[in-house]
Amino acid sequence: MKTSFYRWQAPGNGKIFDAPLGESSYMNTRTLSVLHYIASKKRVSQSQFELEIKEYLEKNTEYENNNSTPAHFYRPLLFLGFIKMSESKMIELTLEGDKFLYFYEQKNYLKCKKYILNQLDNTKYPNLATKDIKLQLFPFRILFKILLDEGNRGLSKEFIKEQLVYLKESDELVFYGATQELFKIQKHNEYDKFYTWVINSLVNIGILKTIQNYYFIADDIESEVERLYKNLSYESLFFSDESLLCQLDGKTAHERYKRDARLIAEAKERDAYSCVVSSEHKTFLSKGKNYVEGHHVIPMFQQKNYGFELDDVENIVSLCPSCHREMHSGDDKRDILSKVYSINEVYMKNNSVTLDELHKMYFCT
Ligand SMILES: [Zn+2]
Ligand SMILES: [Zn+2]
Fold first, then answer.
1. What is the distance between the alpha carbons of residues 157 and 334, in angstroms, rounded to a whole number?
2. Tens digits of residue pLDDT in 47-75
3. What is the DSSP string of 263-291?
4. Which residues surround ligand 2, an ion (CB under 5 A)?
5. 338 falls in which pLDDT band (50, 70, 90)?
6. Which pTM value belongs to this model?
7. Strand boundaries in the chain, DSSP class E
8. How far is the CA of 278 from the centre of ligand 2 (A)?
């Protein structure tokens, strides 16, 4: 059993950002240029990316060609979920990558920072950017949860290098949660990369701050971090089955955001207890009505990305159990999503949510 399978690996060969957002430092410029390159192509194959990216960077930035592996230019973005790669190795921006780039151009760096925070929240091991990893956990949820619990004690860099990056099971943290004794978490040989490239990059962009070698949550995002992580259980920071990831996000959304059962009842009544995909989807009688289930069209776990309330009767549709399952677990949800979108078009358009955006939200890997 190689321990490297169980370490929190860092993607690529450097920081993704190395200065506050908006400053044109070396890595900030490089990262933004890579996003621009992918946006200009819409979709690009991995091989074409690797063929073209260095020349693109030489032309558009102060990058000087060296021997670094071309994959290092997209891996950090893949890690952060600003781009995605399909099974056929096509690379494109995710919804969040798209929005990040948009707000960066608007110079709305606070909003950009929020997008990064949200993407950190979604980042998990395993992922395509870090190879051979056998972990099944959300590294940044763990980081933020411990930072919250430690409060003004902060985290030392030794803790990050020798303990944090080796966490692999919820047991270790459940125990910590009960005792708050950080030193009892098992120690290993120092592992630098996650600390050097990831943690310090978070300091550079002001998501974390340091005071005398200790790490803390930056002041201006503290309340947001508290909102996201305070009520999460340690168990929900780990998962056992990757195929359940969508449901898993739903589960954590349950712990984070309140839902009003009355709204679902209201939506069902509005839809006359009929599946909105087709009124022919008859099920069985429950309390004298055709049985349907309420579903949030823009999923609750997306709440952090939107400024309007998602637990809204307008965002809830009635579905028969089969259509509902398809929404959560179907391989290709495009048809059913298009249908549901057209039903909710006014609400979606009022909130500037496009069909394309909705499709991307349900692309759960
Ligand atoms: Zn649902
Ligand atoms: Zn149905």
1. 45
2. 999 999 999 999 988 877 777 888 889 99
3. HHHHHHHHTTT--SS-TT----EETTEE-
4. 275, 277, 281, 320, 323
5. very high
6. 0.80
7. 44-45, 83-85, 90-93, 155-156, 208-211, 214-217, 285-286, 289-290, 293-296, 316-319
8. 6
